Amino acid sequence: MRLFYLKRISILILICGALFLSGNNLFSLSDPDEVFYSLTAKEMVAHHEWLTPLIFGQPQFEKPPLTYWLLETAFKTWGETPFAARFFPAVFAAIGVLAVYFLGLMGFKDERKAFLSAVVLATSAFYAGMGKTVFTDMIFTVFILCAITMFVLGFTDRRRLGISFIGFYLFCALATLTKSPLGFVIPQAAVVLFLLYQRQINFLKSWWVPAGIVVYLAVALPWYAYIYNQYGHAFISEFFYNDHWRRFLEAEHRGNDHWYFYPMTMVAGLFPWSLFLLAAWVDLFKRLKSSVTAVDYLSLSWIIMVLAVFQMAHSKLASYVLPLFPALALMTGNFLGNALSQIQHRQKMHYLLWLSFSLLALLGIAPMAAHKVLGHYLSSRLPMYFLSGSLIALAGIGITLAFKERFQLALYVLALSLCPVFLTAFMIRTDIEGYVSSHEASEYIPQRSLGEMTVLVSKANARGIYFYTGQDVAVVDYSGKPFFSPHPIPILDTTDKIMKVLESQRLTFGVIRKTAYQDILKNCGSRYHVALLRTIGYDYVVRIEALNIRGKKT
């Protein structure tokens, strides 16, 4: 039996390696978020700083330091490369998959359900994508998952209460050092709600609970106390008001501020398992009065508490609800396990597999249908042919297997759906890199060793240009709207302010949007030679040099 578990774990590790680690050095760090975290870690390394996060040479308090510590470690090991920056998010994504497997083993007492849950999580589009991206959310999610896993360890085996509660509060503390005290609130609230459902709230009447809270405070509190002692109101204002309370009251991304945003994120993000997730919800509600299991209650509690925290806030991002995706995977894995083992679900599996693979076939047709729109961005149709052909082929194989009632094999074919998507992304990276990263544009900007200057940039690429060049930057943005989290860099919202920067230096480079480029040509062309070096993505890379009184470059 142990050899069988080892085989399953090995398969999961191979899946995680293929999905989360492969190709992570091919794409440059993307704007504006990947370079935000990487820039902070880079500056902390440069200043030999481990406690105070820095950006543009100044303290910033948007996130606690644990993610930056991991990035610093990776940068010191492999250098400041995309692979190094994405290494720990990928490792944590793999840990999350294995944690769901072990949580499923303890909760379901069914190895197949546990394995299917882990496969669903690993191969769901949103989780896999976040596993290849430099955000705090994956690390935060996995610490919450590990905390709940430790709780289940003690709940299912009372002999392990000590290690269970100590581990639970330790992982809560690490989540708190990753993102915020929500790392304590979410798992603690989920556990309390679960115990209320189970009518076992007395489970928390153990002396290990206060012992665990002491561990939590010993691990999580010192950094917050140190930063407050060093920066006082500045820390409170930025971290608790601007980055938490203000996001609750005000939408940073107004297009996302709808009640249906998170439900849609849950369904779409679990692709290609979306239809099975919907079926799992329907099945759960049918079983509410008869055969609801402890795992069902746990998953419901988990999902409810994550949504309770984030749904009411006006600032909504898909990454905020990543912590509930392990619970969605457990729900879906439970449903799949029941459907495979119970004959009354056979017809239901037929329909769900046929619909899922039909949807996959339609998605395979979509890239070719959309090529007229995408053709402006792509240099070759070959990647689109590859993507369409691969998805349609997988759909054909899957429908055939479903027709022959080879349901489990058909599910594994469905799990392969992300592979051609990722491979296509690698194939078109040279076409789309300029739209998502400032790296290529930064190669036109002289490095600090050739002289210091202020580079004109758009708001979207300010962090990226600074990360790659080390030159000071000034944002050209006629709206005058500051960054949601303040940055100590000037915002140039008038032509006069732009002229002051140009007058302060003989030579100026810019990576700016079309409107800013046209404005500079119109208003500065008589005094400056404005050379368009290249258009990269949405950015215009320009070189601006002062003219002398005879109209020649100085």
Task: Write up what this structure looks like.
This protein is of the alpha/beta class and 554 residues long. The chain has 25 helices and 8 strands. It folds into 3 domains: 2-341, no CATH class; 344-429; 439-546. The protein has helices at 2-21, 33-46, 66-78, 82-108, 111-123, 125-130, 137-156, 161-178, 182-198, 208-231, 233-249, 261-269, 274-287, 294-310, 325-341, 346-369, 371-374, 382-403, 407-415, 418-427, 429-436, 439-442, 462-469, 495-503, 514-524; strands at 54-55, 58-59, 454-457, 472-476, 491-492, 507-512, 528-536, 539-546. A 6-stranded mixed β-sheet has the order 5-4-3-6-8-7, with helices on both faces. α16 packs antiparallel against α18 (382-403). The protein is globular and about 85 Å long.
Class by SSE composition: alpha/beta
The figure for the number of domains is 3
- Poorly predicted sequence stretches spanning 5 or more consecutive residues: none
Q: What is the strand content? A: 5-15%
Shape summary: globular
Termini separation (Å)?
A: 79 Å
The beta-strand count equals: 8
Number of helices: 25
| Widest β-sheet, arrangement of strands | 5-4-3-6-8-7
Mean pLDDT: 91
Helix content: 55-70%
Q: What is the radius of gyration? A: 26 Å
Describe the main β-sheet briefly.
Answer: 6 strands, mixed
